[in-house]
Amino acid sequence: VWGDGPARAGRVSGGAGPFRLGDGVCSLSASVDEVRVWSQVRSQAQILASMTTTLVGDEPGLVIYLPFEEGVGDLTANLADTGSATLGAPAAADAAEPTWSDETPF
Fold first, then answer.
1. Rounded to an integer, what distance in angstroms lies between the CA atom of residue 72 and that of residue 33?
2. Of 31, 23, 26, the residue nearest 3 (C-alpha)
3. Residue 60 and residue 64: Cα distance in Å, rounded?
4. How far apart are CA 28 and CA 36, in angstroms?
5. Contact of 52 with 106, CB cutoff 8 Å
6. pLDDT digit string (tens) for 13-64?
7. β-strand 62-66 against 75-77: which pairing, if any?
8. How far is CA 96 from the centre of its chain?
9. 63 — phi, psi (to 5°)?
């Protein structure tokens, strides 16, 4: 897992259910520019070389790419797939809904 600082070991487990960030009990309270999930381990050099690059979505090994470009609502496109991702609670609007920003992280 790569965050704002040194790389940390992390693992994403496969399964039939939806992919989730967080533990399902607590919501994620952070500013997130995009989410990339790869099917293989990437080196620090690979991460640093592409972290400020906008991806196309068809890069080898890329399984989830959420660039969060919509700016409204609670759906975002997964450009590595033909599907979309739900942000916040999938039911009626509540406190778990995303707050969109036009700030640039880098």
1. 14
2. 31
3. 11
4. 16
5. yes
6. 555 566 666 555 555 667 778 889 888 888 889 989 998 899 999 999 998 8
7. unpaired
8. 16
9. -110, -25
In order, the DSSP letters of 24-93 are SSSPP-S--S-EEEESS---HHHHHHHTTSPP-S--TTEEEEE-----SSSEEE-TTSS-EEE-S-SSS-
User: pTM above the 0.85 mark?
Assistant: no
Report residue 77: phi and psi, to 5°.
-75, 140
Instruction: Tell me how far apart the alpha carbons of residues 28 and 81 are, in angstroms, rounded to a whole number.
Output: 23
Q: Which amino acid is at 48?
A: L
Q: Which two tokens mark 84?
A: 């979309």
